[in-house]
Amino acid sequence: MSTPKLMYGRKNQRGLNVITAVAMTSFHLLAVAAFFFIDAGAILTAFILYIVAGSLGIGMAYHRLLTHRGYKTPKWMEYFLTTCGTLALEGGPIFWVATHRVHHQKSDREGDPHTPREGTWWAHMGWILTGDGLHHDASILAKYAPDLCRDPFHMWMSKWHWVSNVVVGFALLAFGGIPYVLWGIFFRTTFGLHCTWLVNSATHLWGSRRFATRDDSTNNWWVALLSFGEGWHNNHHAHPTSARHGLMWYEFDFNWIGISLLRVLGLAWDIKVAKVKQPVPYEENDRLALTEEDDTLAMPDEAVA
Q: Coil, helix or strand for 219?
């Protein structure tokens, strides 16, 4: 029996996904409600969790480690960072990695999950509200993330990714009451989601282009600030496996600082770093494959730091 195909792109996603739409509407409304419960401690907690989820989780774990294998780290650290990523409420690691790998393979072409060529709203948020793209099971996603599908931890975390926010939510409720929950869960998560979505939308619309990639990716400084360095998107699309996205000294990349700290502590190695004058490896960017050695995404090896 053939494996069902995972079909992304606006024309392949039909109908409103009611569960996701209700969840997103609720989170946005409760995020607004947070402003009626101003509390300095709650706001500080939200900021700390925003860094934990957005930088340690999405940027350092889901993106640069799990998707592109831009560096290596001990398994316990990989699992810790992945758990941080689930706090962002952007789905489990298998879905996130598979979707992003497809994005690189099909970037701004038919089949891209979230290209602005199919509409700015679609690229920013519409793609998660439509169809069943967020709800494919592991057997379908395995084609794009077989390395994670063979790992029991990532399989479990992909199924139960929402549990971390429930646990943290109850902890915040016990510690600080309703204001801490509104700020630390609902406002923080909603704000963080839009920061990630801006990478999908804004950095394919506005900004500068250092590299002549075959897509519309740009470097956008204000998205980079909001997303801990993910806004240097043209750099990233030119050299996907590079663990450093801000390639110039003035391109602030908080996630790269975090990876560098892990290296100093002996917790990160085989770190790939691209150079500004390095040619764009078009052929490697256009294919999706796995290496025989470790079954990670086979994209070009940049200069190793």
A: strand
List, in order, residues 6 or more apart from 174 with CB less than 8 Å away: none
Provide the pLDDT confidence category of residue 17 given band limits of 50, 70 and 90.
confident
**Average pLDDT score over the chain:** 88
DSSP 108: T
CB 52 within 8 A of CB 84: yes
Backbone angles phi, psi at 269, to 5 degrees: -150, 175
| Cα(130)–Cα(127) distance, integer angstroms | 6
Write the pLDDT tens digit of every residue in 71-81. 999 999 999 99
Report the alpha-carbon distance of residue 259 to residue 249 in Å, rounded: 16
The packing angle between helices 163-176 and 40-51, to 10°, is 160
Q: Nearest CA to 90 among 57, 136, 123, 56?
A: 57
Backbone angles phi, psi at 72, to 5 degrees: -120, 150
Q: What are phi and psi of 221, to 5 degrees?
A: -65, -40
Q: How far from 134 is each of 24, 137, 168, 229, 302, CA to CA, in Å?
A: 13, 9, 23, 25, 32
**Residue 270 to residue 21: CA distance in whole angstroms:** 41
Model-level pTM?
Answer: 0.89
Within 13 A of 237's CA, how many CA atoms are on the CB side? Answer: 28
Predicted confidence (pLDDT) per residue in 180-236, tens digit: 999 999 999 999 999 999 999 999 999 999 999 999 999 999 999 999 999 999 999
Task: End-to-end CA distance of the chain: give it in Å, rounded.
Answer: 45
Q: At what angle do helices 163-176 and 75-86 cross, to 10 degrees?
A: 70
pLDDT tens-digit profile of 119-154? 999 999 999 888 665 556 566 777 889 999 999 999
